[in-house]
Each structure stands twice: as structure tokens, then as C-alpha cells.
């Protein structure tokens, strides 16, 4: 229908993923004219609604100006960066958009300069935003939000080969422009094809697929492709100088000689073509900026979480430590109220599980304090937590819960690095719990595992959002395992490409005990450790300390630098 009122779309996602380009494609597919209005920094409603004619220099608003420039009343208007409109106590330009974007009201939009109603219902409005939380709730209710996630490695490589690299080659005169020939003027379609074939030339710069993949993983770390395009432009500038026989001089003569020797194999060849491979990239654009694998193993008190911000998914390291004090909890890192409550919930859960375990093991005349056989089954890490009590706690096994607090007489400090960036949300609950458990156990969690999920006081793990962005961020960082809530399994199967899931293992958890067992228990050992443990033949009746030492030695041989495992009275546990 030609008179159909189009929905108000809001493309929400990190920068550099093509939201503006998608708006242009919609206009091209509908056969309508396209106009983009940048709303970043707009703080006066007169810029949208216009000035009254009583003011000197008055003019119509940007909406009416766009229609005048296009000469039509049914274009596609892109309202770019709607979440970055400035608001203060005197002006709120987002309130002006309520009339513009409401299908029931924009049929009689009144510009202050025109001072007469104008029908905007035939125009298709598309908004873009990086952070939907910065949009007023009444305005957000009038839009249909479409979530756009970041690109995978394969998608970035395909975009590079088909669009970004040819674009940069044309801009740097490394690829000829395609001639625009009108068949109606020439009168012969065969002649048009012949003229196009005459201008087909091989590009002067070629990047191997291995070089493209390495450029994406080691020199960029983003959800979009803007940094990738800048790196490609840098390579094209170098190739242009290379073809002309010029080069950027280096200060160190020895390093410059090594660089020239390494770049001697990239050309240009007899056809004047420069071929860039993986080994040439460090000498062209500098040292690697990002290491795909985690550079250092997680230490005691550090857990690896996952978060989503306006720039996409990223790793979130959570640090915890304890010092002698009066039981005070300190939380730093510019956190919101929801995330602060998640830290308090995780600490209360850990304390309650510890107290319940110690009460169970302390009941009965035959149950000795520290006897893991009397601790309820369900989490072998709880047994290890209980074994960490001081030897003097045996006399206090019947005291109050405060006396059985594992953090009694100690201050707890939980810190979220990058304190200049505001953080909020409930998805860090499980990661905080693992960081606190690592402090209590004095044992680091698995360094190849990232985790996300909201935790309750009963220990249940609730679903969270942004699963695709979080898994892609873990994949970019070289993380091998991701722990996700079981309720998010559907999002993983529907939103994440199968090619990405081949390089990362997703594990689902319904209770925090499963996360504890994976991070610190027998499930938390790697393949090399498991093989070493399976080959270790322990003599029957071997004391627990000796058994733990033997297993630690076997694991240390499989994983150099392994610090060893803790042991429990009567049995050895990882």
C-alpha cells in the first residue's frame, strides 16, 4: 500500500556495525529518497521544531528542511545518534521527538516557522542508538527496537574482501574506478561490456586471507569494522609509497635493515602488484596490539566475567581481596546500584552456604569438625571451602553463625577495574561469587573460562541479556570456555553462528554449585591435567597429604608453573 504508515524503527547496537548504511539500504529497497539528520549534541528543541518568525534569523526545523531539500513528503529520514541528544533542566529535545515519531500525532506536526500543521505520517523514520538506556522511556515505547550485534571473525573477513579493501584501494589509486557507461547512449550492450572489460585491471595491492584474519584478531578488538578500515587504509598508504619506490625511514639502522629484508618478498612484482602476508604486517603497521590468548593466568581473587556496553561485548575482570579488619565490605569501580547489590548477594550466598555446611558437619556426636564425609553432597568445592576453616574452629562448631563466618575479622574489598567507566547490571553475580570463593580457597580459578549470570540467595543462576555480544567478546579474546545460564541456551543456538561455536565451548549452569565445581573442582582441570591425573597410580592407603603431593607433581609435569592442589582430610581433591 502506498499510503501505509511505516513503523518507527530504532537500530540499536555498538558503533561501526553499519546502522547508517542499513538505513540507506532500506531507502534504496523502497525506492525512496534518503536524508540523514545528526542528533548528537542537539540541546534545543528549536533545531527540530523551528524558530518563530518573530526572531531574527528564524528558520524552519531540521525535519521540514529535510523535506524541502528532498522535494517529497515520503522519504526515509534517518535520525542518527538519538541517544546522544543533550538534555538539561530547561530543554529536553527528546520530548519534541514524541510528536514526530508518534504515528497517531505526526499527521498534524506543527513547525514553529511554518505555523501550520504538516503531515509527516507518510515519511519513514529510522533511529539509531548505541545505548538505549539514554533514551527517554516514553520515546522508546513509540519505537520498534531492532538489536544489532557485532560481527564475527568470518563476517569481518567477508566484509573486508568484498567492501572495505576495494574501497580503500580505489581511494589510494591502487584499483581503477569502474567506468560508468550508459547503454542507451552507446546503443549497444555488447559495446558496453567491451568498454568495461578494457578497463578491468588487477588491483595493485593484494592481502592474503591469512593476513586479513591476523589483522582482525591481533590489530583490532571491536564489534564493528571502523578500526579495521583504518588499518587497511594504513596498509594502502604504505603500498602506494612502496610502488613508487619510497618508504618511511626508521631511526634504528639495524632494525630498518631487518625490516627491509622481511619486506623484500612482498614486491612489487613484475606486474607492479604488492602482496602482503602475515609476516609482513608487524613491519607495516607496527607491533601487535591485542593478543588473542589471555596473556596471564588468573591469580587468586580474580574472576573473568563478561559485560556488554555501548561499544559491544568485552571481558570484565573482577578482583577481590581480604585484609584484617572488622568485617566491612568495600565495593569500588563506579558501579550502579544493581551491580552493588549483586556483590552483596554473592557474598551473603557464600557465607550462608559455608554456615550451613559447617552446621551440618558439626551435628552429631560422631561427626568431627572438618570431616568432609559429613558435608552434604552436591558440590565438592563446598567440602573444600569447609576444610579451609582454622583448626581452632573445632571448639566453636556450636557457636553462632557469626562465629562460623569464613570472613570473620576480615575486610572484603571487591574492585571492578576501569573505574572511569560506569558499570551496572546483575550479570556479574556468578563471577563475583567465583572471585570471593577464590579468595577463600586461596586458589585461582580456571584462566580459560569466562562466566556471566545473575545469582540469587538460593544459588540459582538467572538468565541475562547480550549473550551474542558476550560470547563473541570471549571468542575474540581467545577464551576456550564460557559458562552461561541454562535459560540462555535458546539464544546461543539461535543467535550465534555455528562457526563461532566451533572455536569455543559453551557450558550451561542452573546453580552456582556447577560453576564452583567447574572453576575449582575436578571439572575445572584442563585436558593435560586430566590426562596426568588419569595416569597417576596412587597406592592404596596413601595418606591424603602424600596423595595430594603426588597428584600435584603429576599435574605440574603436564602444566609447567602449576602451583599445586589443596587436600582434604581423608581424600585428595582438585
Task: Describe this protein's structure.
The protein is α/β, with parallel strands linked by helices. The chain has 21 helices and 20 strands. The strands form seven sheets. A five-stranded parallel β-sheet has the order 2-3-6-1-7, with helices on both faces. A four-stranded mixed β-sheet has the order 10-11-13-12. Helix 6 crosses helix 10 (226-243) and helix 13 (337-362) packs across helix 14 (380-387). The radius of gyration is 31 Å and the shape is flat. The protein starts with 8 loop residues before the first strand and ends with a strand.
Give the key terms.
single chain, 574 residues, alpha/beta, five-stranded parallel β-sheet, four-stranded mixed β-sheet, 21 helices, 20 strands, 38% helix, 15% strand, flat, disordered C terminus
Helix content: 25-40%
| Global shape | flat
Tell me about the largest β-sheet.
Answer: 5 strands, parallel
**Model regions low in confidence, pLDDT < 50 over at least 5 residues:** 357-379, 389-398, 523-549, 554-574
Tally the beta strands. 20
- Whole-number mean pLDDT: 74
Structural class: alpha/beta
Task: Describe how the helices and strands are arranged.
Layout: E1 9-12, H1 19-30, E2 34-38, H2 46-49, H3 62-70, E3 76-80, H4 93-101, E4 109-110, E5 117-118, E6 124-129, H5 137-141, E7 144-147, H6 153-171, H7 183-186, H8 189-198, E8 205-207, H9 209-218, H10 226-243, H11 253-263, E9 274-276, H12 281-285, E10 302-309, E11 312-324, E12 329-332, H13 337-362, H14 380-387, E13 410-415, H15 429-441, E14 449-451, E15 454-455, E16 461-462, H16 467-476, E17 481-485, H17 489-495, H18 498-501, E18 505-509, H19 512-520, H20 527-535, H21 544-558, E19 567-568, E20 571-572
Parallel strand pairs: 1-6, 1-7, 2-3, 3-6, 8-9, 12-13, 14-17, 17-18
Antiparallel strand pairs: 4-5, 10-11, 11-13, 15-16, 19-20
Amino acid at each position: 500500500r502506498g499510503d501505509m504508515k511505516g513503523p518507527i524503527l530504532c537500530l540499536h547496537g555498538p558503533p561501526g556495525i553499519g546502522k547508517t548504511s542499513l538505513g540507506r539500504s532500506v531507502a534504496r529497497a523502497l525506492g525512496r529518497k534518503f536524508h540523514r539528520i545528526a542528533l548528537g549534541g542537539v540541546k534545543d528543541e528549536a533545531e527540530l521544531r523551528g524558530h518563530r518568525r518573530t526572531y531574527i534569523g528564524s528558520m524552519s526545523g531540521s525535519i521540514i528542511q529535510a523535506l524541502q531539500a528532498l522535494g517529497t513528503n515520503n522519504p526515509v529520514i534517518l535520525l542518527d545518534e538519538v541517544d546522544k541528544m543533550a538534555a538539561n533542566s530547561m530543554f529536553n529535545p527528546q520530548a519534541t521527538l514524541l510528536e514526530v515519531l508518534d504515528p497517531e500525532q505526526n499527521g498534524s506536526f506543527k513547525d514553529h516557522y511554518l505555523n501550520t500543521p504538516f503531515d509527516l505520517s507518510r515519511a519513514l523514520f529510522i533511529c539509531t542508538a548505541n545505548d538505549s538506556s539514554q533514551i527517554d522511556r516514553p520515546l522508546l515505547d513509540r519505537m520498534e527496537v531492532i538489536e544489532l550485534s557485532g560481527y564475527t571473525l568470518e563476517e569481518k573477513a567477508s566484509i573486508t574482501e568484498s567492501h572495505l579493501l576495494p574501497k580503500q584501494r580505489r581511494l589510494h589509486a591502487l584499483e581503477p574506478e569502474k567506468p560508468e557507461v550508459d547503454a542507451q547512449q552507446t546503443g549497444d550492450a555488447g559495446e558496453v561490456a567491451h568498454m568495461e572489460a578494457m578497463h578491468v585491471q588487477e588491483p595493485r595491492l593484494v592481502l592474503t586471507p591469512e593476513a586479513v584474519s591476523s589483522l582482525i584478531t591481533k590489530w583490532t578488538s571491536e564489534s564493528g569494522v571502523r578500526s579495521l578500515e583504518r588499518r587497511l587504509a594504513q596498509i594502502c598508504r604504505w603500498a602506494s609509497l612502496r610502488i613508487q619506490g619510497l618508504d618511511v625511514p626508521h631511526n634504528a639502522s639495524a632494525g630498518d635493515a631487518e625490516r627491509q629484508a622481511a619486506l623484500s618478498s612482498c614486491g612489487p612484482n613484475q606486474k607492479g602488484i604488492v602482496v602482503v602476508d602475515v609476516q609482513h604486517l608487524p613491519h607495516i603497521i607496527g607491533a601487535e596490539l591485542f593478543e588473542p590468548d589471555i596473556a596471564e593466568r588468573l591469580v587468586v581473587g580474580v574472576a573473568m566475567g563478561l559485560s556488554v556496553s555501548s561499544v559491544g561485548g568485552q571481558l570484565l575482570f573482577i578482583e577481590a581481596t581480604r585484609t584484617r579488619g572488622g568485617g566491612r565490605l568495600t565495593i569500588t569501580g563506579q558501579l550502579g546500584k544493581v551491580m552493588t547489590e549483586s556483590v552483596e548477594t554473592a557474598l551473603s550466598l557464600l557465607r550462608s552456604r559455608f554456615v550451613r555446611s559447617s552446621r551440618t558437619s558439626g551435628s552429631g556426636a560422631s561427626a568431627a569438625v572438618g570431616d568432609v564425609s559429613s558435608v552434604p553432597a552436591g558440590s565438592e568445592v563446598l567440602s573444600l571451602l569447609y576444610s579451609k576453616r582454622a583448626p581452632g574452629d573445632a571448639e566453636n562448631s556450636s557457636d553462632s553463625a557469626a562465629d562460623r563466618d569464613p570472613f570473620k575479622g576480615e575486610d572484603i574489598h571487591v574492585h571492578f577495574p576501569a573505574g572511569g567507566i560506569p558499570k551496572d547490571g546483575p550479570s556479574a553475580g556468578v563471577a563475583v561469587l567465583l572471585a570471593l570463593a577464590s579468595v577463600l580457597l586461596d586458589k585461582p580459578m580456571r584462566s580459560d573460562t569466562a562466566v556471566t549470570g545473575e545469582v540469587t540467595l538460593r544459588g540459582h543462576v538467572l538468565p541475562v541479556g547480550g549473550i551474542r555480544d558476550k560470547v563473541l567478546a570471549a571468542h575474540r579474546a581467545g577464551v576456550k570456555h564460557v559458562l552461561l545460564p541454562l535459560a540462555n541456551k535458546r539464544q546461543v543456538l539461535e543467535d550465534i553462528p555455528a562457526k563461532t561455536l566451533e572455536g569455543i565451548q559453551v557450558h550451561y549452569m542452573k546453580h552456582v554449585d556447577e560453576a564452583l565445581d567447574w572453576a575449582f573442582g575436578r571439572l575445572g582441570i584442563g585436558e593435560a591435567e586430566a590426562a596426568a591425573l588419569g595416569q597417576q597410580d596412587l597406592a592404596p592407603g596413601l595418606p591424603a597429604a602424600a596423595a595430594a603431593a603426588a597428584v600435584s607433581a603429576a599435574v605440574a609435569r603436564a602444566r609447567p608453573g602449576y602451583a599445586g592442589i589443596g587436600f582434604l582430610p581423608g581424600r585428595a581433591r582438585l
